[in-house]
Amino acid sequence: MPTAPTEHPLHEVPDELPRPPGDLPPAPPPSPAPAPAGIPAPPA
User: Fold this and answer.
1) Compositionally biased, Pro residues: which spans (predicted)?
2) Largest CA distance in the chain
């Protein structure tokens, strides 16, 4: 089935097609904030 160029806006990328490199940078993995130096961690 042919797709018309008007089906998808220019700012949207179909999920079937891979996004071009540089479109969205990979999100960094969430890292826990380190405890301040010199301050003991509270008892669990």
Assistant:
1) 19-44
2) 65
